[in-house]
Each structure stands twice: as structure tokens, then as C-alpha cells.
Design a protein that fits this description.
Distance between the termini of chain B: 100 Å
Number of strands of chain A: 0
Largest sheet of chain A: none
Radius of gyration of chain A: 18 Å
Distance between the termini of chain A: 53 Å
Number of strands of chain B: 0
Oligomer: heterodimer
Shape of chain B: rod-shaped
Radius of gyration of chain B: 28 Å
Structural class of chain B: mainly alpha
Largest sheet of chain B: none
Strand content of chain B: under 5%
Structural class of chain A: mainly alpha
Order of helices and strands of chain A: HHHHHHHHH
Strand content of chain A: under 5%
Shape of chain A: globular
Chain lengths: 183, 86
């Protein structure tokens, strides 16, 4: 029998967020799209195990994360590649933040241990509850909370150090050289 | 006496400044973004500023990808698979 269109639409609606999460895991857009495709193949093959009315995004994120852990994790995360290729895939940089600041943030995020980065993204960007994030990662809620807190503290440290530059003309110079600006 | 006069002067100033003191141990300051800040503890306000910035940057980065929507090949894949007889 054919897939319920309502379910199909829920899957489709989750894909953009699924890609964003995949990119944060892989650090590489091509690999991320492969991972999303594989996730969708697996999800649709096992769609009967999805309980209608439950959280579709959490279900798909769980599948994607498990796939990533089992297969993609073996390959090393390509941080240097992430800096170039990831930025390339972005159509535009966020308007409110300068390009330099944006790159600094991504560099800092890349310095986090993967389990902390993952927890921070699920809660801070994907908008999952701590409970959902714990279910997706297969760990206790307290573990997620502690990972998110450690991630925030570490990022704050990294960004606070970088911010010393904000006082000098150097930052403005760099912003101009980077072709960006503060607005 | 000069010293006493100075004490009184200080005392006078102190009274004027009094309301600020319980609120801030460093009354005037700038956060790392260069904005003047009158929030309580330097560490706490630094934390809040940076945390707000972290949240904002995180969502901006994430939403940049989200706003790209669904790539055509994935839309096609989902439609094809969902139309298949099982």
C-alpha cells in the first residue's frame, strides 16, 4: 500500500532540518546529503515502525544519527574541508552577523568534542527538548544537559578570547579585507 | 583639616554613588562587544552576552541550511518511494 500523504509530507518537512543536522555532524555537504538520502531510504523502508502522532523529526534524527555513528564515523571528520566547502554551500551569510564573526564562531564550534557539538545543535539550533535530544542520542537527559552546558562554557571561553580583538582596529581591518562588515 | 575635609568629601560622593554599589562591583565597563554595560557581575554579564551570541550564531548557521529547503533529488526520492506499492 502507498504511503499516507500526510506522513510523506511530515518526512518532507523534516528534510531541511535533517540536512542542517547532517552537515553539523559530517562537516561536509556532499557527505551530509548522502547521509540524509540513506536516512530517508531506511526510514521509508521501515515507515511501519513509525507511530503516527509521535515526533517525526525526532524519529528521523535518531535514524540519521545512528547511521552516522555506525558508518560515517569511521571516516575522519574533515575539519579543514568543512571550512571551505561548508561556507561555499551557504548562499549568503547571516545578515546580522559579520562574516568574520561568523567564521570565528564556526571555527570555535569545530573545536568542540563531537558529542558536545551534537547536543548543543539538537537543543540550541534544532529546537529539540532535552528529553527528545536524549532519546535521539540514546543517553540520559542529565548527560545531554551536561554536554550542552560544557559546550556552551567552552564556546564562551573560545569566543571571549577572540573578542579581545574587538577593541582594536585590527578587527575592522580584517572585516574590510574579508569583504564583510558589520552590517 | 585637609584629610578630614577629604574624608567628608569622599563620604559625600560615596552617598551619591551608594545606589550603584550593591549592583555592580565594577560600575562602568564594556563587554567584549564594546558596548557599555551596567549589568551586575562582570563574569555573569559576559556569560549572558556570549551565551546570547552563541545561541544567535548557532541558529543563524543552522537556519542558513534549513532555508535552502529540500534539494530536488531528495524530493524526487521521497515521492518515488512513497508512491511505490509495498
Amino acid at each position: 500500500m502507498k504511503l499516507d500523504p500526510a506522513i510523506r509530507d511530515q518526512v518532507l518537512a523534516t528534510v531541511p532540518s535533517l540536512r542542517a543536522f547532517a552537515i553539523s555532524l559530517c562537516g561536509n555537504i556532499d557527505r551530509a546529503d548522502d547521509l540524509v538520502q540513506e536516512t530517508l531510504l531506511r526510514a521509508l523502508a521501515h515507515i511501519d515502525s513509525f507511530q503516527p502522532g509521535t515526533n517525526m523529526p525526532a524519529w528521523l534524527f535518531t535514524i540519521l544519527r545512528n547511521l552516522f555513528r555506525s558508518e560515517y564515523r569511521k571516516r575522519r571528520r574533515e575539519v579543514e574541508d568543512a571550512d571551505g566547502r561548508y561556507a561555499e554551500t551557504l548562499k549568503s551569510h547571516p545578515e546580522q552577523t559579520g562574516r568574520v564573526e561568523f567564521e570565528e564562531f564556526r571555527a570555535a564550534l569545530n573545536k568542540l568534542p563531537s558529542d558536545q557539538r551534537e547536543a548543543l545543535i539538537l537543543v540550541g539550533a534544532s529546537g529539540f527538548s532535552y528529553d527528545d535530544a536524549a532519546a535521539i542520542c540514546g543517553c540520559a537527559v542529565g548527560t545531554i544537559k551536561s554536554r550542552v552546558n560544557r559546550a556552551r562554557t567552552r564556546l564562551a571561553d573560545l569566543l571571549a578570547i577572540d573578542n579581545v580583538d574587538d577593541f582594536g582596529p585590527d578587527r575592522a581591518t580584517r572585516a574590510v579585507l574579508a569583504g564583510g562588515g558589520r552590517n | 583639616m585637609g584629610i578630614r575635609g577629604k574624608d567628608e568629601d569622599m563620604k559625600h560622593r560615596r552617598t551619591n554613588l551608594e545606589p550603584l554599589e550593591p549592583v555592580a562591583d565594577k560600575p562602568e565597563g564594556q563587554d567584549p562587544m564594546g558596548r557599555t554595560n551596567t549589568m551586575p557581575k562582570p563574569e555573569a554579564r559576559l556569560g549572558r552576552e556570549v551565551q546570547a551570541r552563541i545561541g544567535q550564531q548557532l541558529r543563524a548557521m543552522y537556519n542558513d541550511v534549513v532555508n535552502q529547503g529540500v534539494p530536488d533529488h531528495l524530493t524526487d526520492l521521497i515521492r518515488r518511494l512513497s508512491d511505490e506499492e509495498k
